């Protein structure tokens, strides 16, 4: 057993179908009684429903969350929270809604209670992001870590099948990189292996029956664990690539993770035999994930997400310019070859 440091993140988790009904007692349990509900415009109805469940503990609903948290959206939410005298925020939705709550927490210190409806995992991390003039800044701050997370699988049955698969793969990517992270530790690795297993098992069941509540619960359980891994470890080549592709070319978050993951894992697998074994996806987990994505109808090429072949060099330059943790050295030639394969939708190698 090698040496390690393990730091648990201080938060509560309430899990189970129908657990939205427990949100009022949860808000009270963490000391809040005037919360602002934040969600995306597409989920405004759900935001109103959550406000109804909260009753007089809710002072307003702001359905303004946007992908990558534009600073002006964050400012509007902060101003609204101040005007309404909110003492915290309840965020309901995917990573974009959670990100907006984190931005308010960063500036105002208002605690966040999260009700996630995708598998992105942001609710389990102290990582915030803000986008200004086309550039996304990210950072880590304990103040943005939600104080409580309510996982209600019933709220995920509306997630379209395509988004279900790509969001699930996004979560698996956290587990994969957590397993070979420089700050990996035994307990976190158990969570990563279990989280990936739960999602790989649940996703085909959800493609066959998107409203299967049992499978939704299993996927959400996997997403919780994978999100906790994301919050506890330092991500490598895969997340670096996705950050560059999303930030520079505005490619969609979860589909980009889905396409890149097999290629990043194929690159790193020779230097991470323990991670390969822990994943339990056979001797070639990169190929297994690539085939799984194909069988579930997920995108497998960056071209179909809108990337031009001519962008490969630009992205490679960006990834090589800033150092990041990774188990295997990344050369320029290796990176360009990886990106070309991912762009064309070829199998990982
Ligand atoms: P998202 O939050 O942008 O949601 C995508 C769309 O799906 C939105 O229109 C949303 O309203 C809709 N949606 C969400 N749940 C739904 C449901 N159950 N039913 C129907 N529609 C639903 O997408 P995402 O992939 O969850 O989050 C991506 C964002 O989160 C990115 O900006 C990414 O950088 C960020 N993120 C941050 C972290 C972190 O630790 N800081 C981690 C993961 C993701």
UniProtKB/TrEMBL annotation:
Residues 164-342 form the Fe-containing alcohol dehydrogenase-like C-terminal domain. Keywords: NAD, Oxidoreductase. It comes from the Bacteria. CDD domains: MAR. Gene3D superfamilies: 3.40.50.1970, Dehydroquinate synthase-like - alpha domain. InterPro entries: ADH_Fe/GldA, ADH_Fe_C, Alcohol_dehydrogenase_Fe, MAR. One of its GO terms (molecular function) is metal ion binding. Residues 10-152 form the Alcohol dehydrogenase iron-type/glycerol dehydrogenase GldA domain. PANTHER family: ALCOHOL DEHYDROGENASE, ALCOHOL DEHYDROGENASE 4. Belongs to the iron-containing alcohol dehydrogenase family. This is Maleylacetate reductase. It comes from Klenkia brasiliensis.
């Amino acid at each position: 057993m090698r040496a390690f440091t393990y730091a648990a993140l201080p938060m509560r988790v309430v899990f189970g179908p129908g657990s939205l009904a427990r949100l009022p007692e949860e808000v009270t349990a963490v000391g809040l009684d005037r919360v602002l509900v934040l969600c995306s415009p597409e989920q405004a109805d759900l935001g109103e429903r959550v406000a109804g469940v909260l009753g007089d503990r809710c002072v307003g609903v702001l359905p303004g969350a946007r992908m990558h948290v534009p600073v002006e959206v964050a400012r509007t939410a902060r101003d609204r929270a101040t005007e309404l005298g909110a003492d915290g925020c309840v965020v309901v939705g995917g990573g974009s809604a959670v990100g907006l709550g984190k931005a308010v927490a960063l500036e105002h210190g208002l605690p966040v209670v999260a009700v996630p409806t995708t598998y992105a995992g942001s609710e389990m991390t102290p990582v915030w992001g803000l986008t200004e003039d086309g550039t996304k800044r990210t950072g880590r701050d304990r103040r943005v870590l939600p104080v409580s997370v309510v996982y209600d699988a019933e709220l995920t049955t509306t997630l379209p099948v395509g988004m279900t698969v790509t969001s699930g793969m996004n979560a698996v990517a956290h587990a994969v990189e957590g397993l070979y992270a420089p700050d990996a530790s035994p307990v976190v690795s158990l969570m990563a292996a279990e989280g990936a297993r739960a999602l790989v098992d649940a996703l085909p069941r959800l493609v066959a029956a998107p409203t299967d509540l049992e499978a939704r619960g299993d996927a959400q359980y996997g997403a919780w664990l994978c999100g906790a891994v994301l919050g506890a470890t330092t991500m490598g080549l895969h997340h670096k690539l996705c950050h560059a592709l999303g930030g520079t070319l505005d490619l969609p978050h979860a589909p980009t993770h889905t396409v890149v993951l097999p290629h990043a894992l194929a690159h790193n697998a020779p230097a991470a035999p323990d991670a390969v074994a822990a994943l339990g996806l056979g001797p070639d987990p990169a190929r297994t994930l690539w085939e799984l994505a194909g069988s579930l109808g997920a995108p497998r090429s960056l071209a179909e997400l809108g990337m031009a072949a001519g962008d490969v060099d630009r992205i490679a330059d960006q990834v090589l310019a800033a150092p990041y943790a990774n188990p295997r050295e990344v050369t320029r030639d290796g990176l360009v070859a990886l990106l070309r394969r991912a762009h064309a939708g070829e199998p990982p190698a």
